[in-house]
Write a structure and sequence with these properties.
By secondary structure, the chain is of the alpha/beta class. It has 16 helices and 15 strands. The structure holds iron/sulfur cluster.
């Protein structure tokens, strides 16, 4: 197996496991008991201090959960601890996830002053009926305030998360959300299809037939609407759920540097309960339980729940699955360096199948999916994986 000669810069993720209330669709790990905040910060600092790594990091992403529920000085302390422990570049992208209703102009200014360069705001919808149905705690006006305050605080990198595919949601209703988001001229938009993740309240509601999920064909129509509308407004898709405003000199200046690491085999360290780390070929995950996480750290042990060394086959499968999610697609050179096998020979029958021609784009450098191909991402990725 050949290793890449120039590994891409690494990223750091911090998981803040607190939320004011749980949204019905969410399967991220978080708790609503905020009493453990101080113990968590102490545990997090122990975890950071006990982790040694010589890589160069060019992104730090503080997500969750709801990081903006912490007192805002704690965010600055986390950034300081990371900078002191690791080689975090001075020009690193430092992203903070915030939720409407948990920020003020003052707190946003404080984040900016302490080094946060990019905000990701959990808007989800600008329609109160949709927010209520999703179990969000904030009204639409709180999202508008948060966006305006973020600009006033000096942020020039603002991203918003939106959700589409709610039961009965019309194309017009979704376009209204997109247009409202675009009216704030954000640098980045993440548009997620609503999914019923196992063991969420939404999943239980679906099983009890309390609502009927949108039909797959209708969700695909909304995906197509999203891609067409946003690309027409200068926000080309660069990953199946992510869109960045084109810069005047560079098409990718507003992409999330950190999130791109997950799709391109870059190394990353994760801290906090349920956080994942990946140092090719090893992947590990922390306890998805704050008590177990803190118990390990307070007894001098790293809070790792699971660790695995990916086989070459697993690595290639991930390269395919993650690569096909992106606009650029799979890097053929990177795949061949890893596998030692010629890409075009290994996947010849897929690449020459006339039925798949409109779904797959092949260049000498990359193999990617067309937008139609992205609508059937799982089945096409499955075909590639079957041949590895
Ligand atoms: S605020 Fe975010 S992390 Fe918390 S429950 Fe809602 S979706 Fe999940």
């Amino acid at each position: 197996m050949a290793f890449l000669t120039n590994p891409p810069p690494a990223g750091i993720y911090i998981h803040i496991p607190f939320c004011a209330q749980k949204c019905l669709y969410c399967d991220f790990y978080s708790i609503t008991d905020l009493c453990l905040q101080d113990a968590f910060i102490e545990g997090l600092f122990r975890e950071i201090a006990a982790t040694k790594n010589q890589l160069t990091f060019d992104s730090l992403y503080i997500g969750g959960g709801t990081p903006s529920l912490l007192p805002h000085n704690q965010i600055g302390r986390i950034i300081d601890r990371i900078s002191a422990q690791f080689n975090l570049e001075a020009s690193a992208e430092i992203t903070l996830e915030v939720n409407p209703g948990t920020v003020t102009l003052e707190s946003l200014k404080a984040y900016r002053e302490r080094g946060v360069t990019r905000l990701n705001i959990g808007v989800q919808s600008f329609q109160n009926t949709h927010l209520q149905w999703l179990g969000r705690m904030h009204p639409a006006d709180a999202a508008k305030d948060a966006i305006l305050w973020a600009r006033a605080a000096g942020f020039d990198q603002i991203g918003m998360d939106l959700i589409y595919g709610l039961p009965g949601q019309s194309r017009q209703a979704w376009l209204a959300d997109l247009h409202q988001a675009l009216s704030f001229d954000p640098e980045h938009l993440s548009c997620y299809m609503l999914t019923c993740e196992p063991d969420t309240p939404l999943d239980r509601m679906r099983r009890h037939q309390e609502f009927k999920p949108m039909a797959d064909g209708d969700v695909c129509d909304l995906f197509e609407t999203t891609v067409m509308e946003l690309s027409g407004q200068g926000y080309p898709l660069y990953e199946i759920s992510n869109f960045a405003r084109k810069g005047s000199n560079s098409p990718d200046v507003n992409r999330s540097r950190h999130n791109q690491k997950y799709w391109t085999d870059a190394p990353y360290l994760g801290f906090g309960p349920a956080a994942h780390s990946y140092l090719n070929p090893v992947r590990y995950r922390n306890h998805r339980d704050i008590a177990a996480y803190l118990a390990d750290l307070y007894s001098g042990t790293l809070p790792i729940a699971e660790k695995e060394t990916l086989s070459l086959e697993q690595q290639l499968m991930e390269t395919v699955f993650l690569g096909l999610r992106t606009l650029e697609g799979i890097s053929i050179q990177r795949f061949e360096e890893k596998s030692g096998r010629p890409f075009n020979v290994l996947f010849q029958d897929i690449l020459t199948d006339p039925e798949l021609k409109k779904l797959i784009t092949l260049t000498p450098e990359h193999c990617s999916l067309t937008f139609q191909g992205m609508m059937v991402l799982d089945s096409i990725a499955g075909m590639f994986v079957d041949r590895i």
